[in-house]
Amino acid sequence: MNQAEQVLSSPLEIQNKLKMVSGKEVLLMLTNNTQTMVTIKESPKGSISLRAHKMFLHADEEIITALGQWIGGKRGARERVKQYIAANSALHIDQRIIQRKVSINPAGKYYNLDKMAKEINEKYLGGRSSAPVTWGRKVTKRKPSTIRLGWYDPTRRLITLSQRLDRRDIPRYMVEYVLFHEMLHEVIGVETKSSGRRDIHSKKFNLMEQTYPFYYDALKFEKKKWGGV
User: Fold this and answer.
1) All residues at 6 or more sequence positions from 217 whose CB lies less than 8 Å from its CB, including other chains
2) In contact, 209 and 215? CB cutoff 8 Å
3) Taking a C-beta distance cutoff of 8 angstroms, is the pair 20, 72 a contact?
4) Which of 115, 126, 151 is nearest to 211 (CA)?
5) Most distant CA pair in the chain: distance in Å?
6) Phi, psi torsion values for 123, nearest 5 degrees
7) Could you list the pLDDT tens digit for every one of the 229 residues in the chain?
8) φ, ψ (nearest 5 deg) of residue 151
9) SS3 state of residue 29
């Protein structure tokens, strides 16, 4: 195991690494929150309060370094952390959450996900998607540092979209794009790179995603509305 693959197993080790990389005073709190995986708050004095999911206990040093770089403001680091979260979130869901009965609510105030998913499945996926779709829980007013607009849970085989998308000011193509993205996760699954790393956004995934006619419009809207998160 080389240095880049080492795992910093204790919260203190992770916190110290984050301080060293970011150049800031960091207070790390690990949680089981599966809705918001990372929340970064900076005090007026410049210290950082970081709430992160316990999955980061299993992250290698490369990911912890990227998290520290994100805190320090380095461009591109945030995307690397997001990729790790997307690839590993389903593996670290609290078993009590998995066992909890899931309420499926596809009919939103403005958009019906069930009808939308059927249309997308027929047009772009050849009917290969079979996972149920639902709106997530009501979102809080505060704005977290990492916004998840949608996610696919392979443990439950369930696609969930954030209620941030069920609004009058959100265009239909944006909702369709996020839904299509998560349906692709179901259909394609996780591939493996030659290095042995998990690859959730493989070349095949990216090429298929771009078959959605309003792909670039959705990316442009996402960047304008949420800063590309």
Assistant:
1) 171, 173
2) yes
3) no
4) 126
5) 54
6) -75, -40
7) 333 345 556 888 999 999 999 999 999 998 877 667 899 998 888 899 999 988 888 888 899 999 999 999 888 899 889 888 887 766 555 444 444 566 789 999 999 999 999 999 999 999 999 999 999 987 765 555 567 899 998 878 899 999 999 999 999 999 999 999 999 999 998 877 777 677 888 889 999 999 999 999 999 999 898 875 4
8) -160, 150
9) strand
Decide if 92 contacts 32 (C-beta within 8 A). Answer: no
- Say how many Å lie between the first and final Cα of the chain, rounded: 32
Q: Which residues lie across from 51 on neighbouring strands?
A: 29, 39
Tokens of 155: 């443990």
Secondary structure letter of residue 190 according to DSSP: -
Please give the model's pTM, rounded to 2 decimal places. 0.59
Q: Are 100 and 52 contacting, i.e. CB atoms less than 8 angstroms apart?
A: no
Two structure tokens written together for 176: 């369709």
Written as one string, the DSSP assignment of 101-163 is: PPPP--B-SS-BHHHHHHHHHHHHSTT-----EEE-SPPPSS--SS--SEEEETTTTEEEE-G
Cβ atoms of 88 and 58 within 8 Å: the answer is yes
Helix then strand then coil, in percent of the chain rounded to 5, is 45, 15, 40
Bridge partner list, 158: 153
